[in-house]
Amino acid sequence: MFDTLSERLGGVFDRLRGRGALTEEDVNEALREVRVALIEADVALPVARSFVKKVKERAVGREVLKSVTPGQQVVKIVHDVLVETLGGGEGDHELNLNRPAPVPILMVGLQGSGKTTSTAKIALRLQKAEKKKVLMASLDTRRPAAMEQLAVLGEQAGVKTLPIVKGQSAVQIAKRAMEAAKLQGFDVVMLDTAGRLSIDEQLMAEVQEIHRTTDPAETLLVLDALTGQDAVQTAERFKERVPVTGVVLTRLDGDGRGGAALSMREVTGAPIKFAGVGEKIDALDVFDPERMAGRILG
Ligand code: GDP
Fold this sequence. Notes:
Blueprint: H1 5-14, H2 24-40, H3 45-59, H4 70-87, E1 103-109, H5 115-130, E2 134-138, H6 144-157, E3 160-161, H7 170-184, E4 188-192, H8 201-214, E5 218-224, H9 228-241, E6 246-250, H10 259-268, E7 272-276, E8 284-286, H11 289-297
This protein binds guanosine-5'-diphosphate.
Guanosine-5'-diphosphate binds next to helix 5.
């Protein structure tokens, strides 16, 4: 088991009790512990480094409060910087549907990341909580099973899916979905793109082409939290090719430490909007930076 960051820092700072202010030396020693804890929580090294720098700027010269130990004080600063970094601006975690209907939302990511499940989860949420009429369409022309899966999820969730027509390209299906949605008065169209086991040029070119033709209001990248640094690399690659506007982090019900979330936020520059917390169709939370900071700190 890992020591929690609070425990690590407790030891470092016990001897500082009763001092006036945090010196650079005190802080440096604590920050070494912070860096180790972040890396153990699966935060990428460069991200951990730049994070620690931010904490340092805020901690050096701080008065040591009487009511808490210096360790607790640094933990609090680390917590605050984590929440700020994960959090982004106000309203950042909501979907931007500020467009004339039907509003396209593009779902991208690798196969197995939870993309199709998340598509249905978000569609259900929009229908239930926001009373939107949602149409879902699978653009995975290479895997008929993926199209079927979306249709089955749609039935479970009571969300309409675009009828499957064999022989159409992904772009053709996307256009058909938008036209059908316009004619039938849907508010939102969720486009579930094809995944791959790993990133390849063909996949990226297809995603780019779909993005260009549909001009989505949101491009949500689905990433599996349990894959840690691999998910961060996936994020890097997708971001090079399409303007990702938000991340859906799945499998947060698993026992990953969640540090990858911090790296993803830094790498994509896009806010994490939703957290997948189980296999069930309603197992989706709006991303909560406070809760994630707590998880990373241990
Ligand atoms: P896709 O290939 O990216 O479309 O992935 P799927 O949506 O088919 O999901 C792959 C598997 O992961 C399925 O068995 C899902 O039920 C499961 N899954 C998706 N999201 C979550 C999640 O947040 N938590 C857990 N535990 N399982 C999930």
